[in-house]
Amino acid sequence: MATMRFVLTLASIALIAGCASEDRGFTLPEGNAERGREAFVSFRCFDCHDVHNVKLPERANSDKAIVKLGGEVTRAKRYGDLVTGIINPSHRLAAAYSPEESAGSGKSPMKVYNDVMTVAQLIDIVTFLHQHYELKPYKPTDYPIYYP
């Protein structure tokens, strides 16, 4: 009997993420946040990204736009959003990028790591980043009492 082998690539992860139900969300196998931090540093992601409450090495070049990751957000940063942001950085451009940095092309200046990052490294980096987001509590608008 022949055995089937499934090779998980970053492209297949993107396909799976796109098919995930909005109700359930999307996750990969459990990652390791410490290995994720190590991969984040080894890929020099800190040259363009700060991570909320994380001490990272000094940047080599400080003239690049710095995109802040983590911290309080008003919209939940889902696991699948982080996966998509790494696999396809041009999917949603960060507000920190000026039109000159995206060369007017609408493309992110972030390097695409799909051919150099392993799936395990992706999982670990997403695990590392995901734990640094905190959903800001919703504060309803205070309306005066209306009497007709």
Describe, in plain words, how this protein is organized in 3D.
- There is one protein chain.
- The chain has 148 residues and is α/β, with parallel strands linked by helices.
- The protein has one domain (14-135): Cytochrome c-like domain (Cytochrome Bc1 Complex, Chain D, domain 2).
- Helices cover 28% and strands 8% of the residues.
- The chain is built from 4 helices and 4 strands.
- The strands form 2 sheets. A two-stranded parallel ribbon has the order 1-2. Strands 3-4 form a two-stranded parallel sheet.
- It is globular, with a radius of gyration of 18 Å.
- It starts with 9 loop residues before the first helix and ends in a 13-residue tail after the last strand.
- The mean pLDDT is 80.
CATH homologous superfamily annotation: Cytochrome c-like domain
Strand order of the largest sheet: 1-2
* Cα end-to-end separation: 78 Å
Give the overall shape, derived from the CA principal axes. globular
Report strand %: 5-15%
Number of helices: 4
Q: How many E-type strands?
A: 4
- In the CATH hierarchy, the architecture is Orthogonal Bundle
Unreliable segments of 5+ consecutive residues = none
Query: Pairing-aware structural class of the strands and helices?
Result: alpha/beta
Stated plainly, the CATH topology is called Cytochrome Bc1 Complex, Chain D, domain 2
Average residue pLDDT: 80
CATH domain class? Mainly Alpha
Using only C-alpha atoms, the radius of gyration works out to: 18 Å
Biggest sheet descriptor: 2 strands, parallel
Helix content, binned percent: 25-40%
Order of helices and strands: HHEEEHHE
Total individual domains: 1
